[in-house]
Design goal:
Lipocalin, 6% helix, 46% strand, globular, 309 residues, two-stranded antiparallel ribbon, mainly beta, 14 strands
């Protein structure tokens, strides 16, 4: 029988909505990237493995437990599919509490994903149990979406104001250099009362709007990345970044790093309590524009609720 520890509540079906931002190279001369902005609908299903998987080594054998998953994302406006991702979330049994004991406060996790661009990736990290104080507000840290030079560190997130470097991120810019290179979006649009421009600047504000004011009884925070040190987004060591791209698809750009935070939240509304899963994920893509190689954060966020069948 598999032991999941802090991942146990993931088992089951989840549904919800979110937002996706990705810059992609022009299919012509590749000189002017196009910014795609999507309001998303998502389904995420987890199923526990039927038994632990032994990972055998010359000095020891580690028992791995976990869940298979299938993530499906569509565009709310067009109904078109955007993303499908099968994979496994695993946990190292050595970091689980002994059988019959209470959950540990922290345990090691892995995520193995296959993406139908001809890519796969391996992410590692930790799941941590957090018990928020009754009057404590839950703050989600902002993320950067602005492109930045490939030889420079990632800049700090911009919560308000105009994003630098690339006009399509400014929804008030109606020049051809902006409108012609982004998804058609009404800048008067709001999601959960948050202006769409605020969400473009930092998609995590959409998560914050949902969770603000919710009575959170418990949080399991799951943090993962493709490399242990990604402060400057240097290429991770071989084998960590999952760079298995099909040759004809590598024009899409190099994947430098990926990192994500998931928050598995128990929302206590008395008789109407429920489980909520929020996440913010960034994949750093690198491709040139106007003769200069740039890094382009691809940011996805969503808030899902567990469906009771």
């Amino acid at each position: 029988m598999v032991q999941l520890g802090l991942l146990a509540d993931l088992s089951g079906s989840w549904e919800g909505h979110g937002f996706n931002l990705v810059a992609r190279p022009d299919s012509g001369d590749g000189d002017q990237p196009f910014v795609e902005l999507n309001q998303t609908k998502e389904s995420l299903k987890f199923h526990p493995l039927s038994s632990p998987v032994p990972s055998r080594g010359t000095e020891q054998t580690v028992e791995l437990s976990g869940l298979t998953y299938l993530q499906s994302i569509t565009d709310v406006v067009t109904g078109c599919g955007l993303h499908i991702e099968p994979g496994i979330w695993g946990t190292d049994a050595s970091t689980l509490p002994p059988t019959g004991k209470s959950h540990s406060a922290k345990q090691k996790i892995q995520r193995m994903a296959s993406i139908p661009h001809g890519n796969s990736l391996l992410m590692g990290g930790w799941a941590t149990s957090i018990q928020p104080a009754p009057d404590e507000s839950f703050e989600i840290a902002p993320v950067n979406v602005a492109p930045f030079p490939a030889d420079a560190p990632m800049p700090a997130a911009i919560v308000g104001g105009r994003l630098p470097n690339y006009p399509p991120y400014d929804l008030s810019d109606f020049s051809e250099s902006a409108v012609g290179f982004r998804t058609a979006v009404d800048d008067r649009l709001t999601m959960h009362g948050i202006p769409i421009q605020t969400i473009v600047n930092d998609p995590t504000r959409l998560l914050q709007a949902v969770v603000s004011g919710q009575p959170i009884a418990k949080i399991v925070m799951i943090s993962m990345s493709t490399a242990s040190v990604i402060d400057n987004f240097e290429r991770p060591p071989a084998g960590l970044a999952g760079d298995l791209g099909i040759d004809t698809l590598t024009i899409y750009g190099d994947q430098l790093a990926a990192f994500a935070n998931f928050w598995l939240e128990t929302i206590n509304h008395g008789s109407n309590s429920f489980l909520q899963l929020q996440y913010a994920q960034t994949v750093i893509l690198s491709f040139p524009t106007q003769g200069k190689k740039m890094n382009w954060p691809h940011v996805s966020v969503a808030t899902l609720r567990k469906i009771l069948l």
